[in-house]
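Regression test case RT-17, inverse folding.

Input:
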């Protein structure tokens, strides 16, 4: 009977964690470039009372075993890589990636991290930076006084200077991908860090090596689907309630057994 209590309790703990993940997804439904997390469940160890293929007293082998499971747990939260919805902003410094890839961002300590959020600005030095002031890697510097900025699908950056009849190219943007993007580590502020699970970064120009292209004047929103999260929330709540009822039933059976 105690096994039922601990097994159901593990289910309640797992559903609590799952609801925490859903709450995080829902809270970031409006976050630019956010990637939804998905809970991955795993069953716990089994108690084997009779192994499959074991021998009976008659010498016959049993076709099936007798195992009692120990419950469940959340084994991982997987980063989903499906694209988010695109919205047009008209801001020439807003960039969306149509397809695979991440922008490289350099932190003050020199570490390069990655993001899908393309809401960039220009700092006092003319560098394209994130909303936290972190520059692209490699840096892209816009000349002072530029009257217009153009960024093509392949990442070519051009500017028009006062008095110039035509625009001039000043560089190209890179994109980065990974063998396993789901293995990236979210560190907050729309940033992700590479891990051993993600593999090393693969850097190339937009549109090459399987990378997506760049859309200027657009932003990619979160890939969270509110309807899907609500369905998962309802299912998780029902599973939590069911496990709670199992504990109540086991407790009642213990009470009856101890009264006799």
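Golden output:
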């Amino acid at each position: 009977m105690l096994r039922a209590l601990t097994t159901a309790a593990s289910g309640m703990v797992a559903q609590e964690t799952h609801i925490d993940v859903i709450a995080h997804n829902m809270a970031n439904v409006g976050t630019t470039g956010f990637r939804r997390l998905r809970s991955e469940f795993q069953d716990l160890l089994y108690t084997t009372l009779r192994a499959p293929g074991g021998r009976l007293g008659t010498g016959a082998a049993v076709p099936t075993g007798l195992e009692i499971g120990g419950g469940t747990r959340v084994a991982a939260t997987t980063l989903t890589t499906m694209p988010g919805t695109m919205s047009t902003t008209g801001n020439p410094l807003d960039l969306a990636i149509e397809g695979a890839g991440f922008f490289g961002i350099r932190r003050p300590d020199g570490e390069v991290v990655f993001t899908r959020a393309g809401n960039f600005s220009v700092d006092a030095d003319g560098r394209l930076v994130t909303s936290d002031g972190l520059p692209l890697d490699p840096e892209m510097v816009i000349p002072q006084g530029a009257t217009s900025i153009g960024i093509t699908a392949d990442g070519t950056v051009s500017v028009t200077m006062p008095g110039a009849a035509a625009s001039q190219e000043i560089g190209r943007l890179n994109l980065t991908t990974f063998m396993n993007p789901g293995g990236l580590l979210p560190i907050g502020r729309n940033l992700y860090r590479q891990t051993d699970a993600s593999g090393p970064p693969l850097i190339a120009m937009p549109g090459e090596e399987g990378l997506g292209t760049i859309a200027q004047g657009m932003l990619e929103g979160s890939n969270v689907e509110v309807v899907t999260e609500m369905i998962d929330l309802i299912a998780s709540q029902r599973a939590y309630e069911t496990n709670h009822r199992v504990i109540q039933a086991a407790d009642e059976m213990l009470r009856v057994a101890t009264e006799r």
